[in-house]
Amino acid sequence: MMPKLSLVSGALAVLLAALLGNAPGVPEWKYDLPNTVEEEKGQTIQFTGGDGTTTLTGRLYHPAGRKQQTPVIVLAHGLGLSQDCSLEIFVNAFNDAGFATFTFDYTTFGASEGFPRHVINPSGQIADLHAAIDVIEKTDSLQVDTSKIGLWGTSYGGGHVLVAAASQNPSIRAVVSQVPALGSGAESVLATLMRTPHMTTVALAKTLLASMKWALLGIVGKTWYVPLHGLLGSAAMMQNEGDNEGYAALLPPGGGKYGHRNAASVGSVFRVLVHRPINSVASVVAPSLLIAAEHDTLCPVEQVVKAAEIIEGAELLILPGLGHFDVYSGDALKEILSSTINFFQKHLK
Predict the structure, then answer these.
(1) Is-contact 45 143, C-beta < 8 A?
(2) For 96-128, what is each residue's pLDDT tens digit?
(3) pTM to 2 decimals?
């Protein structure tokens, strides 16, 4: 009996090793922080992140021809993105409207420190956002009106700015949350499973394999990564119809100066699954504008509508016929910029 059992155990071990050897994803990569001091535009600001130890890097941009301290808008980007990923059009538009702007990279992303890279920790990123607000409030040399801070966030950052505003910091005078992620990742997975049960089951099986490899590598202090975006049926975190192409369109050529990679640590998946910003929105008191896309499969319009109903006095803009990534270009972008700037001018000036 024992020899047969040993044979079976050995065969299972070989099968498991073969499966894990083919697990989807990529290993850790060597990363050297880029030189962020010499920039053509804006002022590099380095500050301590929300964990109290990691050095984060941000950029402050002033409006042209300013003659006095101006209100400042802090921008929080979406899932897995750095400050050089298509934020420039928003920075320029807000600057042209007379606002200073501040962009920054979350811990382990872009020009900010932290290793292993590309670890998405929602609560940690919100703490980083608070740290960015704090450095603006406490650094007189930045020459901004620290009593008039606006928050702008898109996608995953759209949820972050609402959670940050729930702190009721009196300096936060206005919040714009664009196609925000408000439900948990688990809710998103369930919705995708209902739309495309077969391919989503395949994707979950691949993610399980990647998770097993991540767990084993963790024993020796290593990590494993799955794609941030990909096709339906892959192990990617975002794989609804249009996600792969829409996300890729936001990225700078070749990964940009910060070397963006299509990867997030597997541990990120578990944190995203349980993070649910809508639980915090009842505490938001700052004037808020919520923007939703009618056919958004990543950040459903129903959740944005619900949040707008919970936040007292919130304004709601629904863009008909559009998906999540349609808001970053074309007529939709023009409408969003117009509505957003009007909102900030009403509450920050």
Answers:
(1) no
(2) 999 999 999 999 999 999 999 999 999 999 999
(3) 0.94
